[in-house]
Amino acid sequence: MDKKLHFGTFARSAVMLTILGATVIPSPLVAAGDLAVQDQALSIQKPSATGQAAQVPVQKSAIKWKFSPSFYDQATGYSYYYATTDQMSSRTIYLDPKGKWHAFAEGVTIHRDYTLESPVVDRTKYGDPIEGLYSTVYNPSKETATRGVYFAGGSDLQHGLRYVKNYYKRQDAQGKEYTASDFSLLLRTRSGVIREIERVPNRLHFKAMPDGNVLAEQYSVPHKPDEILIINTETGKKKHLTYGRPEYYDAKGGRLLITLNKTENPSIVYTLADGKQRPATEQDWKAFRSISLAEGSHLPWPDPATVPPTDLQPQDLPVTSIQSQNQILVRAAIGGLAVNLSFAFVQNGRTLFPVRELAEQTGLEVKQTKVSGKAGGTSFTLKGPGGSVSLTPTDPMMIGGQLFIGSDILKRIGLPVQGVNWNP
What we know:
4 helices, 424 residues, single chain, four-stranded antiparallel sheet, 2 domains
């Protein structure tokens, strides 16, 4: 029985952010000549008929590339592939509908994000950790990469849920340092307001539902391994369905095929409308597999017929430039200045603002100091036009390794918040 999981499970490695999130992202807009591999032709001496030595170019040896499928973009008809070498070079190439191959700059890879169900520029190449706050979504039609905070469960990546992994330094009873972590679960409603609805010990996987809500799967400590929920994307409230792993989701029929967290892992068919369930048969597995294949994936795989030829040399292909831009979700008036923010959020009724972006736009000066004798302890001195303040942030002030502060602190340093507009 082929019990293949179709709920977007994937493995990721966690990478530590700097406290302020002050990572510089290089612009992918680079001329092709700057990024192409520059192989210099060797030459040998060969006697000529007149006794003069003649320069004879030696043919460059081909680089051995390995290719693997990335995704297929239905809007453009482009088929994308990873290209890697034993020398650890990597890049993304693609085939256009006219049969022409193209490449992105060396080191730039574009892959499918299973949570966002969208192509993204490899975040490990551009300073964003795998489970960080920001993603760089790629639009093949416009050849643009937009860095910002995106949400799963909707059709436009602008509304729904997002989890962000947070790391903390701790000390055990013997004084030995260790790293603890949790996940901030963020919700962005249709009005544009972003709220942290809770902090959870394990990450969630999301699936959009036709009614606008989100089907979610999370690890359950007391009922190992999984719990299935529905999360309301306007209120953030959760509705428990059952403890198990969703294998297939029939969105049109409103049904799930689930493997339960029980001895011998029995499978059931769960009807969402009334919560009724029954044992799954072999015919159910076949039917759900057929539905999954018919619906396809948001990012289908390239056709096997478009696989790159084994002798293709990506370094010799025309290089496609990527236009880079930033997403703006919040516009605020702070200290008499118009400030554009890629992210801010409400926590327990209090709006918190990213220190890094405030420093870039308001002249806020930030000094970070390690606190001796405390594991991972850090203090900050914030200086504005009206004074300065020193603070040691608590865990709720840290999201994805970045520091956030409220209007009370901004007011004390002469940067009062006059208004906040959430872009819908």
